[in-house]
Write a structure and sequence with these properties.
alpha/beta, 43% helix, 5-stranded mixed β-barrel, 3-stranded mixed sheet
């Protein structure tokens, strides 16, 4: 049997069920007869038919988010073909058929509307399988519903005989008298469901509506593929706006109809929604009332007394009260609104996202007025040591203090000074560095990794990761305080680390994961800071060495992901450890390689930066527009939790690549940067603190703010400032911390 590719058609203007259904969210995307939307009902009804094929959804670009969100909610994936503009069913079906035929020349498509209510899915699937037999014989089969009542709401089909038979005629929606005659003559309701081989339907479209086929074919050739989406190009708009009935079905000689008896309605009017028995929504009280339909938006109570067969539909900006027998006339109301109150034709527009520069200015103010003062006061104790965490109400929370946090906070305040902050950055930096040296430095010049809350040594391990941040902090303090002698101290630490390097150029880390990419990433960051500040060839050589290790061993050439853990020969670690990849680190390495490639004017390194950036984007959850914590090297999700720091790395990578790009590519990167900035703002509090871990259900873990995040936030601010100095040189005055 041929592979079956179900196609769900998501067209429609969203007017027949106004005010609940409107163009930006038409009826297929709202629950009308139960808890699922009609689109979700349709997906669940047909998904299992795609055993050897693939589920396809055709929708307008404006409805992409609705489609993706509602698919995610029911855990079903699909290939999504996105139209730049609606051109009716002939063009939509042509797009799906041509794409299907390109994947499987013998495949059969099942075309279904996304807004029909069919409560008995098993009966529907049985009918489809029967119709597939006719389709594989070269027929275009439509399902004709045996009428239960004479209805002027549907078109009709005249079959030539019983069972699966050729079609004699397709007829328009009749008046009531004609509908009675049609039923007596054995006509069937036209359900709008079609089953045909993709190549056969495509051939018929080209023969009978060539302009449709040519425009759609051209739009597919120029389509942009974005994950599971196919974005048809503007050539699609050249397709004549015509239904499949007019374009093909009324002209073709290969149309057949299969009579079916399952319950079916297109829920095209409020009386049909009421008849489903599941249409009531929201809070309502009915007194001495019968046969009514009440739908109230959240927070609204509807009370009605003494009504019969009345529909009351309440949205936040509009209310419809209708005799249900006349609910087909809602379209007349909509037509009048076009001149009387056009703004009520659609839902109120959502607030526009904050522009990137405005968000950057707001972040600058937040740093200057809230975050920097908070962490310079309650975030540093009288001895100069920095707090590990602060409670979200601003209280200090006793906790062991990591060496890396001390170094990170020192470099944050050094950067604040370098960027004009008028607060006590000098004393914060100087006392912090003095305290670090007195408590954390071992006799060999390395930092011990951890002190107890009272300052007593707790872990003497010298982590490479920690030494990287000490080198980095010394670079920024040297620049901020004008102390060039600090470079000798940094070189001493670097040389000790290099003395421990293996034949591959890697440096073994302490702890449970001795062979890892993360510590090297921060060594590269520190080396770039010194190289960019001094131009010293020793730091440049150190950076080159780490970049070479990353490009030859850390990046999996098969998948494009940069991995986290390795064996002693720097091949991927065994088991799950060797499959772990973190989207935040893809972005962070992309940012570092972009800097390094820019410094070296090396297009090959820049190309690798772009590849890592694209790998990172695979970890941005589109529905919530947020970067998740962890994936596997095959692209599957390992942890859907989202910490703060990956959002900053998404922002930084997008910004630096925007500054190195031109025109369209720059615009795409800036769009990503704006999305990343919006994601980051979800974590920040007005008091200059932040939340750290956002769960997949949209709730934050209730825990203190970790000081370690401040370094990431400051780095994102610095990249915002640097990028705008390139793309809008006159805008950076608003990004000064002074």
């Amino acid at each position: 049997m041929a592979s079956l590719y179900p196609v769900i058609m998501c067209g429609g203007s969203g007017t027949r069920l106004w005010p609940a259904s409107r163009p930006s969210l038409p009826k297929q995307f709202i629950p009308l007869a139960g808890n699922r939307s009609l689109f979700q009902e349709t997906v669940e009804r047909v998904a299992s038919l795609a055993e050897d094929g693939e589920l396809i959804v055709v929708a307008g670009i404006a409805h992409r988010q609705a489609v993706e969100t509602q698919l995610d909610e029911i855990g079903i994936s699909a290939r999504i073909i996105l139209e730049p503009a609606g051109r009716d069913s002939a063009a939509a079906m042509a797009a799906a058929a041509l794409w299907t035929a390109s994947q499987d020349p013998e495949a059969v498509n099942l075309f279904v509307a996304s807004d029909h209510h069919i409560p008995h899915g098993d009966q529907f699937r049985k009918a489809v399988r029967e119709a597939v037999v006719g389709a594989t014989a070269g027929r275009i089969v439509t399902l004709g519903v045996v009428p239960t009542t004479p209805s002027s709401a549907y078109g009709y089909i005249a079959p030539q005989g019983p069972g699966l038979s050729p079609v004699s005629a397709f007829v328009e929606k009749p008046d009531e008298a004609t509908a009675n005659r049609y039923i007596s003559e054995g006509y069937l309701w036209n359900s709008g469901n079609f089953i045909a081989q993709a190549k056969i339907l495509a051939r018929e479209i080209f023969e009978r509506a060539a302009a449709v086929g040519e425009a759609v074919q051209s739009s597919l050739r120029g389509a942009v593929k974005d994950e599971n989406c196919i974005l048809l190009n503007a050539d699609f708009n050249n397709a004549p706006k015509i239904s499949i009935d007019y374009a093909v079905m009324e002209k073709t000689g290969i149309a057949s109809v299969l009579p079916v008896r399952f319950d079916w309605t297109d829920l095209g009017s409020w009386d049909s929604v009421q008849a489903s028995g599941e249409g009531d929504v929201g809070l309502h009280v009915l007194e001495d009332s019968e046969g009514c339909l009440v739908r109230a938006c959240d927070g609204v109570m509807v009370a009605a007394i003494g009504l019969q067969d009345v529909g009351i539909i309440v949205e936040r900006d509009a209310v419809l009260v209708t005799d249900l027998k006349k609910s087909q006339d809602v379209k007349k109301v909509v037509e009048r609104l076009r001149s009387l109150s056009p703004r009520h034709l659609d839902f109120p527009a959502r607030p526009q996202p904050e522009p990137l520069l405005e968000g950057a200015s707001r972040m600058t103010n937040w740093l200057r007025q809230a975050a920097l003062p908070a962490w310079a006061s309650i975030g540093q104790d009288p001895t100069g040591a920095f707090e590990e965490v602060l409670a979200l109400d601003g209280r200090r929370v006793p906790a062991p203090r990591r060496a890396r946090v001390q170094a990170r906070q020192i470099l944050v305040y050094a950067e604040a000074g370098l960027n004009g902050w008028n607060g006590p950055w000098k004393s914060v930096t100087s006392t912090g560095l003095q305290r670090l040296r007195s408590l954390y430095l071992r006799p060999d010049g390395f930092m011990r990794t951890l002190l107890a809350a009272d300052g007593a040594p707790k872990d003497e391990t010298a982590m490479v990761y920690d030494q990287a941040f000490l080198i980095f902090a010394l670079a920024r303090v040297s620049a901020a305080l004008g102390e060039p002698d600090l470079e000798a101290e940094a070189i001493g630490i670097k040389d000790q680390l290099l003395a421990r390097a293996d034949d591959f150029g890697g440096i073994k880390e302490g702890g449970a994961y001795p062979y890892q990419s993360n510590a090297h990433m921060h060594l590269l960051e520190a080396a770039l800071a010194w190289e960019e500040a001094t131009g010293d060839s020793g730091w440049a050589s150190f950076a080159d060495r780490i970049v070479n290790l990353a490009r030859t061993h850390f990046i999996d050439t098969d998948t494009g992901f940069l991995l986290e853990y390795f064996k002693a020969d720097w091949s991927p670690a065994a088991g799950e450890d060797g499959r772990l990849t973190e989207p935040g680190h893809q972005f962070e390495w992309a940012w570092l390689l972009a800097r390094h490639g820019r410094n070296r004017n090396d297009p090959v390194i820049l190309a690798d930066a772009w590849k890592l950036y694209e790998s990172g984007l695979r970890g941005v959850e589109r529905r919530r527009s947020i970067t998740i914590d962890a994936m596997n090297s095959d692209g599957s999700v390992r942890s859907a939790r989202s910490r703060l720091w990956p959002q900053t790395e998404w922002l930084k990578a997008s910004l630096i690549l925007a500054s190195l790009s031109e025109d369209g590519q720059r615009a795409q990167c800036l769009d990503q940067a704006a999305a990343a900035q919006r994601a980051l703002w979800q974590y920040l509090t007005p008091q200059g603190l932040w939340r750290d871990k956002l769960l997949a259900d949209g709730k934050f873990i209730d825990e203190p703010a970790p000081a370690s995040s401040f370094y990431h936030i400051m780095a994102a601010y610095l990249q915002l400032k640097d990028t705008f100095s390139v793309i809008e040189p006159g805008s950076t005055q608003s990004l000064r911390l002074s």
